[in-house]
Amino acid sequence: MAKSAKAMRDIHVSAIADAVKKLCMDANWSLEPDMLRAFDRALGRERSDAGKQVLTILKQNAEMARTRQIPYCQDTGMVIAFVDLGQDVHVTGGALYDAINDGVRQGYTEGYLRASIVRSPFDRVNTGDNTPAVIHVDIVPGAMLKIMVMAKGGGCENRSKYTMLTPAGGLPAVKDFIIECVKTAGPDACPPLILGVGIGGTFEKAAVNSKKALFRELGSPNPDPMLDALEHELLDRANRLGIGPQGYGGDTTSFGIHILTYPCHITSLPVAVTIECHAHRHKEVTL
Amino acid sequence: MSVSAGADGIKDVRTPLSDADVQSLRAGDRVRISGVIYTARDAAHGRLAPLVERGEALPIDVTGQIIYYTGPSPARPGGVIGSVGPTTASRMDKFTPALLALGLKGTIGKGYRGQAVKDALRHHTGVYFGSIGGAGAVLSQFVTKAEVVAYDDLGTEAIRRLDVDRFPAIVLYDCHGGDLYQEGQKIYARENA
Hints:
The complex is a heterodimer of chains A (287) and B (193). With 287 residues, chain A is an alpha/beta fold.
């Protein structure tokens, strides 16, 4: 061993599994404060009576889910995990991916959460414990392990879209595509919706960024002022469509649109939009 | 009649439903459903479809009944059912006209449906109700009993017989061509969206 080797920090897989288990249960039972604030903001400006009624019931639903530890939505989702793995962390006792799936298994079984995953897209046999998760790992400087978990509903995921635009189409084409996604999602995806948008990169980079964008706190500004203005413009347009809560008609079609960009090829303008419902269940922890 | 108007303007609906019951419902009506309803979603419909095609008996008699498109989360020990909100109905569009032809009177779900379902609702006198998507915890309170009656191996996707008491819903599509989505959204749609 070289004398200059920096000490690694050991993190045992059992600590990772425990953390993921807790995140899965908490995410499904307790909406984050950013979501609860979004309901209140919307109630303050929604004109539709049906829309206000839906928003009020959803607030009650959140309270009941939290106090009774019953899932906010029966679709407790597919677990999407984004992991920032410090390069000075040494995972011990097993494999990182297995530890995350163990946590999902324990959380969904012990938390009375629904098993919604089939082992194959063709034979459609349920795995019975909601595994496996979709796991994205980024290696980052440092000795911390950050785990961000989302319980991603299927109804809204089914309305997510991708397109490859042209550089000539540019910003106007990007805007139109995003608004078109809100229209086609409509009531099927359980509005008020949240949109995660990945622009730039490649086919898969844009898609992953569209998921990652959803982890930003709802209502917080985009750190890039140009993107922040774009998000506000698009949110205003989305909320003028009239779709409203549950699609019954109203002013609150979307709670927020979050954009992440990445450099791209001179030929390309990829845009991926992940559609997220109001059951936006996300939690994170740093070990 | 199994439909009566409550003093609060909400219509009480008791299953099973007759053609006259369905005809009295209009898009936008708020309702409270009581009695028995059946759950079935993608996988259960996939098993019912070949039986319907071959004219064989179904594990449930759908005559006058309502199918709720949902896959509940598991009940806690001692509980009746877990979270039980609607799933996207259009995935069942392929199967719905044939079930309406057999006498099914209603479905509960969320989201738009295709023209073939709208036509079948008119032709066979059926109704499409909406319950609030993502309000599964609140909706669980209106289920008093739940029992698997077919396809237990499908887990959450099994067919369940639910006893419901004043289960809240809204008429999305009626049998007269009424469509709450179209009517509601055009009121709030603004120029230059």
